[in-house]
Amino acid sequence: MKKSKIIAAVVCALALCVALVGCAGGGTEGGNNDANFQGDWMLSGGTNDGQELDADSIKAMEDMGLYVYVQLNEGGSAVISLFGTNMEGTWTAKDASTVTLEFEGDQFDATLENGELVMSVEGNSLRFAKGAIPPEATEVQRDENQQAEPEA
Fold first, then answer.
1. DSSP secondary-structure letter at 130?
2. Structure pTM?
């Protein structure tokens, strides 16, 4: 009799644990997950064809004025900037650790991993850390073939 009471207590405890974990892990209502993603994200690392993109490589690119960043703005608008070329898009938080991004008709998911936003496509990945975008990264970059727009 004592053994069956112990088993019953263990089963009840396990059921309670499963119920609590199920309640804690789900998404939140009303877009509260947006705060996990909203803000400016600077390139912090990645891999391309098996080659690691490390902090020294990123620093060298930035020293040459080549920046990569993502802005996830309030209201769901987004900008990804690749070496001075900006693409506008949208973003939607799927849950507390996954965001869906759309740029130029292409959709993909990014995940939060150890405080970084990780975008993976076809075996390659880019990692972004939340941080301020340097003013020089947002300056319009032109080469000698581009004409400046005349002021109105």
1. E
2. 0.69
